[in-house]
Structures are given as C-alpha cells and as structure tokens.
Design brief:
With 378 residues, this protein is of the alpha+beta class. The longest helix is centred in the last third of the chain and has 70 residues. It is a single-pass membrane protein.
C-alpha cells in the first residue's frame, strides 16, 4: 500500500511519509535565541562606538563587572540564624537576622550558623522510624543509660539536653569545637554519670530529680565553658529513671510496700492528732477541777480553824458564857427543824389537862410521801 494512501503513515498526520513533519500547528512560536543575541550585539555596538575593545567599551565592561562584584556582598540572615562575617578568615563582627552587607569575596565572607535555634540531644535512647505505627518509636540504648549509683546500685537513666549557641559566643562555637553535637552529648553523659555516682538510688528514683537535673546542667555548662565552646545549656530533662529491667518488678513491689507504709503512718498520725488534743483537754479539765477542790478544801479548813481559834479566845475570857452559848447554838442547830412543846412541870405548875391535844396546838406540816392524807401524830 503506498504511503500517500495511509494519511501520513503511522508517525505522521499529514500527506507526507513517516519521517515528514506535515503541516505545523497554528499558534505563537518560541523566541529565536540567535535573533535575540544578534539584536543584543547590535545595540551594544551602538552604545560602544568603535567596537568592544575600544577604551570606552573596556571601561564599561570593567564597571559592569565591578558593580556585580559589589552587589554580591548583600546577603540575608534567616530568623533563627546569626551572620558571622570573616575578613580574610578572621572574625570581625556578628550581624542579626535580616538583610545585611559585607565586602565582596575574597575580602570578606559570611557564615550562617543557626545560633537562635534550640537543639535537642537524647542520651540513653534513640528515635527510630516505625512504618507500622506511621511515626517514630523510642529504642533504649543500654550502653548509654545504665549508670552506677553511690550505693553501688544500677539505675537506667534516659534524659535529654536542650542547648543553643550563646549570642556572644558564635565565634567560639564555629572555631573552638569541631563536632558540637558530639561534644555536648559526651559531656552530658559524663556529667550525668558523675552526679549519679555521688547520689543514692532512692532519692534519684523518688523526689530528687530536680536536684539531679540542676546539678547535671551546672556541671555540663561549667565543662563547656572551660572548652570555650560558646554553647549555652538551657535545660536538662530526665525522661525515665528506673532500675534495670531484670529487677524492676521486685523494685515496684518494694515501692508499693513503702507507699502503703507511708499511708498507714499518715493515717496513724491523723488519728493521733485528733485523739491527743482531746485527751490533753480532758486531763487539763480534771487538773483544774482538782485544783479548785483543793483550794476550796484548804479555804474551808482555814476558815473553820480560824473560827475555832476565835471561839477559843472568847472561851478563855468567859468560859461559862461561852459554854452556854455553844450549848444553845448546838441545840438550835439540832432542834431547829423539829416540832417542839415546852412544858414546865415544876411544883408551881397547875398541871395539864390529861386529854389536851397538845399536838394540835403546833403548826401542822404537810404530810410526807408514804403517809396517808388523813394521818397524823396523836
């Protein structure tokens, strides 16, 4: 079959053969680079009469090169960076974030460390990608986390160190240490081992975490300052503090028993705080009552003795009169509440009518309980 009957063949859409281009589509064409270069050369020749290598042309080319060289000194410092400007390799100044300028290369160069960013280093653990969980998981690193305490126990410590570059120590950070992260990690692990080695295991596992963290942070900072590293330690955080996995179950039982002991002690102390004040109050009340009774008894005894002495003094002055007065007072006290009839049965008496109801002459008292309402003495 001839190609002209195939409508341009399998690769063509026009009346030509398989390697023909056929009719071109209608639309804008891309610019011709050769034409642009040719026009630029013509305009440059118009600006520089006499050719490229004339005096004016060479001067203009040099000025353009110098202008581009001077403009190359502009640079931008990002928000978490600081610009360290070096003049022939020597640190001359530090610039803040924003647009800045330095003398072009090779006079001055600039380094852009991330001095305002807080970095994190984990010790005793590492983060690994976990595709099954679509995230990152923590893997323990025993050679970093197992440490010996001051009482010869082993404790598993995982902690993180937050650090950044000092604003006035960027030059020290760049030129005094070669591997900042490795240096901080090594110093932090050494400081933690030293602090743990001076401490007992029980305070570390319970309530001394803040003290331990503060001690480790101060020791790390002091060591890094001795290196002239220009690094500032912002915080040390202890993530996990446990005994080794082989004895953690027994240790938790001991901790639970200790917690129960503290709970019982607190309950007993609460009960004692409630009962002891009450007992002390009752004891004070009894003592005050006894003291009052003693004072009362002493006062009454002193009063009676004083009264007896007064009576005795009067008795010595007039014994008969005093004796009679004492007799009368005694009889008054004894017979004061009884019913009395005085009968003078002497020789001068006229006698008494035998049937005279003498008891009717006295004032009748109300009958007491147990006596009949109509009864009486006869």
């Amino acid at each position: 079959m001839p190609w002209k009957n195939q409508g341009g063949g399998p690769w063509g859409s026009g009346p030509k053969g398989p390697w023909g281009t056929g009719p071109q589509p209608v639309g804008p064409r891309p610019p011709d680079l050769e034409d642009l270069l040719r026009r630029g050369q013509d305009r440059l020749q118009q600006i520089m009469p006499g050719g490229y290598f004339s005096g004016i042309g060479i001067t203009l080319i040099i000025l353009i090169i110098v202008a581009f060289w001077l403009l190359s000194g502009f640079f931008r410092v990002q928000s978490e960076e600081l610009g360290v400007v070096l003049r022939f390799g020597k640190h001359v100044r530090t610039v803040q974030p924003g647009l800045n300028y330095h003398l072009p290369y090779p006079i001055e160069t600039v380094l852009l460390p991330k001095a305002l960013r807080v970095n994190t280093i984990s010790i005793g653990m590492t983060l690994i990608d976990d595709p099954a969980r679509r995230g990152r998981s923590i893997r323990d690193v025993p050679e970093e986390s197992l440490m010996l305490t001051g009482d010869e126990n082993i404790v598993d410590v995982d902690f993180t160190v937050l650090w950044r570059i000092k604003p006035d120590g960027v030059g020290d950070f760049l030129f005094n240490i070669q591997n900042p992260e490795g240096t901080v990690k090594a110093v932090a692990e050494s400081a933690m081992r030293e602090v743990i080695g001076r401490s007992q295991i029980q305070p570390i596992l319970t309530g001394a975490r803040n003290v331990t963290e503060q001690g480790v942070q101060e020791l790390i900072q002091r060591t890094l300052d001795g290196y002239g590293s220009g690094i500032l330690i912002t915080q040390v955080q202890m993530q996990k503090v446990d005994p080794p996995g082989e004895v953690i179950a027994a240790f938790r039982d001991v901790q639970a028993a200790r917690a129960n002991l503290e709970q019982l002690q607190n309950e007993a102390q609460t009960y004692a705080n409630q009962v002891v004040p009450q007992a002390r109050g009752r004891a004070a009340q009894i003592l005050q009552a006894a003291e009052g009774y003693r004072e009362q008894a002493i006062a009454e005894a002193k009063g009676q003795s004083a009264r007896f002495l007064k009576v005795y003094e009067e008795y010595k002055k007039a014994p008969d009169v005093t004796r009679e007065r004492i007799y009368l007072e005694t009889m008054e006290r004894v017979l004061g509440g009884a019913d009395k009839l005085v009968y003078d049965g002497g020789p001068s008496g006229q006698g008494v009518v035998p049937f005279l109801p003498l008891n009717e002459l006295t004032t009748k008292r109300p009958p007491t309980s147990g006596q009949q309402s109509g009864g009486g003495n006869r």
